[in-house]
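G., before I forget:
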Amino acid sequence: MITEPVISLVNAVLFILLAPLAGGLIAGIDRKVTARMQGRVGPPVLQPFYDVGKLFEKENMVVTVTQHFYVLSYLVFMIVAGALFFSGGDMLLVIFAFTLSHIFLVLGAYASYSPYSHIGAERELIQIIAYEPMIIFTAVGMYMVTQSFNVSAIVNSGIPIILYLPGVFIGYLIVLTIKLRKSPFDLSTSHHAHQEIVKGVTTDFSGSNLGKIEIAHWYEYVFLLGVVYLFFGFSPVIAVAAIIIAYFLEILIDNTISRVKWQLTLRSAWLIAGTLGIVNLGVLYYLKGVIMP
Amino acid sequence: MNDLVFLIGFPVIVALLMLLVKDKIRNYIVIISAIALGIASLYLLIIYFNKNTVFFDIPFEPTSKIMFIIEILLAVYILYLGITFKKYFTVALILLQAGLLLFLEMGLIPGIEPVNNLFIDQLSIIMAMIIGIIGSLICVYALGYMETYHNRHADIKDRRKLFFFILFIFLSAMFGIVFSNNLIWVFFFWEITTICSFVLIGYSRTPEATNNAFLALSMNLLGGVAFIAALIYIAIMDPSGKLFGLDSLISSGYALAIVPAVLICFAGITKAALMPFSSWLVGAMVAPTPVSALLHSSTMVKAGVYIIVRFAPVLALTTEGFIIAMVGAVTFLLASGIAISQSNAKKVLAYSTIANLGLIVACAGVGTYNLMWVAILLIIFHAIAKSLLFLCVGTVENRIGSKNIEDMGGLIVRMPKIAMMMFIGMAGMFLAPFGMVISKWAAIEAFITAPFGLIFIAILAFGGSFTVFYWSKWMGKIISVMRHQEVVEDTVKKEKWAVLYILTGLVVGVCLAFPLISTYLIEPFIMNIYGVTTRLSQANFAIMIMMICLLLIMPFSMLFYRTGSKHVSPYMGGRTMESEMRFSGTFGTMRELSLSNYYMEKYFGEDKVFYIGTLLCWGLLLIAGIILAGVVL
Amino acid sequence: MTYLKKSPWVIHYDASSCNGCDIEVLAALTPVYDVERFGIINTGNPKHADIFLVTGSVNEQNKEVVKNIYEQIPEPKVVVAIGICAASGGIFRECYNVLGGVDKVIPVDVFVTGCAARPESIIDGVVTALGILETKRLAMKEKGNETMDKSGSAV
């Protein structure tokens, strides 16, 4: 008989080993699809791996050595957050670890004392405060439906969470745009050929540090899409389909909407959290016992 | 029993000594008595942690007579000051309060003989530890600080004798508040803290300081009036005087206890500087930094939340309790917002304090058992991290001559050790896996099961993200590496370092030791009151310990990277950055690079948000007042 | 295994070009030529770049900038001078403030001719540069090993 802690541990290890592969592939497919949408051929699907491989071949160049520390911490705590999530840990703890890792990225950008990194850092912070309430509402919503903050309990509940939390799900998709650094919310930095005030938060990172940031992004992708899975946890097939559709939508939004100012990002994210999120949760709360299992 | 009397009485003796001795001897006395107080509060912990509530029968008279005389003398003193400075609102309040006090003491109290006047339980132990350890550390720190302060501000008259006298009286009064079971005594000590804070805030005697001191005084007197109204109500309802005992009042049930509870909680709200009374705490920033640290972390405002936490079982699941909780929650949200717009380090700390006190009151007001657990946890974590931050800011201010966050750029180069300590202190305030985030996390899990908890969760989610913003940008400022700056921290005194090291150690240590604190102090306390208790699950706790260890290990990765990195200047759009942060601008001019943070004045401007908060909170208090009037009539 | 050749990121700097060559550089990124097929990305940030594309001649005003950008690109790196102005100063060579080609300030690895250079030749130039980039990478690696050996023996 395999006990629960063992399963959790195995899941965590699997996440640590496989998430970069999956994340890198997702990034590759993303670039390919984006290229097709723009009428281009696009890079090979494995391009993100080549990029990161190359970054590790480059010279070790920094503005200050503390950058190494912040980037490493960013990566490590991103892995911690994701591993906690996939081992079925407490959703809120996962969110706090996730925030912690991003704070390290922001600090890394602040550390170099360059105007471009600085603006990137401020904008990254604005993004963090823009999406955080909605992510907390997501966790709270899942608790209200399944009576647990534990990811394992949420997945195993067998409840079609999406039916109870449609508003929260839409809200989550919108903050997902912020998290995946997609237009219209790619303020602090963005992926592939996009530029934003040079390169925003990553401006003063180069070589292996930049590579680590990319790897952290891969882990992040897998974690964020894992949350999408939770909404459809009752049926793995539907869940995977939902993830694919959700991601495709993100790419479509990325390629069809232009970037907005930070003020609008902040306002719209909070408005979404404040309306869709809270109204959805309020209805659930009010109808507790009526529609709840 | 003697240990309690020692903790209340010993600081008074030290205080009297402070009036007599000169600089050199003062240093020794303060350090020795700080150690004594620290050891005494630890002793208290060891003796009483496994005993539940223990009562002590100190005779009511003549102690009460002495207290009464002191109160009247203080009232006369304030009356004199109020008339001298033409602060007629304060005068009116003190007259009202003195009148009510006379009515109570002359008309109602004679004939009663309350027993069990002192007591100790786990909450008192926790508070005593905070006062005894953090409070006395701040006193030690004040020695060096005040010396530098007077060297820098030659225009301010050196009244350090009075200063240290008041500091120790303050500690004594705080011990008095947390150990008194008799509400009349609690009120006495309560008034002492009000007057102590008045003197300390007005220490420099500049017009600004005087005004702010009177502001603090009148707001706290307003609370005092509510407090005394509660006492009169109790005396009228129960002429035997038995209900003056905190324990019997709390266990007397909703019908009897709710009116005094709400009135005393109103006093608590004024003392804890929640909106609409937050302006006194912000104004108190004119005082020397150790005073701010003392008012914010271990004394004064903690007295306010202490009393509300005490009454939480009465408030639990009542409309009145909900309204008080809402005042706290609104304060948390708006004060966190205002903190974003502030560039003065002490003001950021002040608003952060107000916000956290709001959160504590929100938890205590709703008052379910698991929220009570969170409230006590918040009190502990906040006291330690906030005192560290205040003392760090004070040290920085003394070195660089500014308390503006924008001037703290590159602190990691100029004052590496202080910057690291500030970093840890701030992490303690908003980053996982440190204390405040543990509490926030537990608060979400607790609110979700409470009635109308969703409102609080929403406020917590938004307020929490404001918190992340203002701390991170400040953190970013101090850790940005600006080259060619000289190190200016080697002139900091030894005893200051000792205090700062101890506090930094405590920030981390308490996070590691918190399951012990929870198991041996908080859980039995809650078990006693509610019959159920709560805790963090073992698995989650193990994860948190791992995260803390990881965080402590991470900086060592720097050793690995120490060599082999090529250094370049930050990217400046192709411009060459020269030494001292200068770059060649247009037309061959050299320009200096300076970066500053976002403050979002448009969204979180102090005046606007404070106005909204005042309206909302007065409105809430008004509703509470109407309900209360309904109960009384 | 080398990834450098599969993921060359460029930074494009207009020294004092008439914009003819710049338009052609950007044309290479459009769907018609789509250099992202080869993993080429215009990063806009020297710290992320491997290949430095310079158009136009170098003058007194921008020589500092060209040098600065070059220094901020981490090794291994190559410089591609695009168009005749970048090679020799072109028709601006005689101007009072023009120093001449890019090679007056920084070492250039590939010259792409033309006025303006055609996208095909720009891509050809970049592909040639990739070969040089690889040689430089190997040289850097060898040097790195050497220094490591030296420090090892010293210990």
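Residues 1-256 of chain B form one domain. The CA atoms of residues 199 and 333 of chain B lie 31 Å apart.

More on Monday.
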